[in-house]
Amino acid sequence: MEKPSSLQIHNFLHQAEQRLRRQGLQHRSPDPAKFCQPQGKVKSDSSAGVAHTLRVPLARARDTDQTKDTTGPDWFYLPRTDLTPEFKRDWQLLSMRGLLDPKHQKKVLRSKPPLYCRIGESTSRLNLKSRQRCTRSERNRPQFYQILGEQDVGQVKTKYSKIQRRKSSGKKKSSGG
């Protein structure tokens, strides 16, 4: 099959354009006046009766809901807390941190999470044994697993068993039968 020449392509396009005009199909471009406002006359062409103006895009109004769901400019637009399951688990861990590390006294947190907060992400921690950067899986673990990994597991188990013994000390033991 033979390639059409540039003259043939030009003729095809010209014929298609004429057909569209005859059928009344017009492809309109969006009205620029909706997006821009004239800023003044730059040059007027009296022979064509057309005034050339400089059009500057309108500044879009800032979304009002941005300030609605944030703390505002005084607190750097801190976003509303997104209560994901990971956040809830991390908040529980923070509220129970006195149980995990009984040797350090921690201030008691509120029972409810704050309305506005931002969750940070640890980008790199030093691995004390090998002094290398942590792997991606270690970096992306939730805070819950990071703290449990750092704690002495034996200490947590003994604390848990003490609590269980204290809770079950006054109860009758059921005979499994």
TrEMBL record:
Compositionally skewed regions (Basic residues) per UniProt: 159-177
Q: GO molecular function terms here?
A: RNA binding
Q: Can you name a GO cellular component term?
A: nucleolus
In terms of one coarse class, where is the protein primarily found? nucleus
Gene Ontology annotations of biological process type: RNA processing
Annotated spans, Disordered: 21-72, 156-177
Q: Which Pfam family, giving just one, matches this sequence?
A: Fcf2
Taxonomically, the superkingdom here is: Eukaryota
For this UniProt record, the keywords arranged alphabetically read as follows: Nucleus
Q: Where in the cell is it found?
A: Nucleus, Nucleolus
Where does the Fcf2 pre-rRNA processing C-terminal domain lie? 68-156
**PANTHER family per UniProt:** DEOXYNUCLEOTIDYLTRANSFERASE TERMINAL-INTERACTING PROTEIN 2
* Official protein name in the record: Fcf2 pre-rRNA processing C-terminal domain-containing protein
Taxonomy of origin reads: Eukaryota, Fungi, Dikarya, Ascomycota, Pezizomycotina
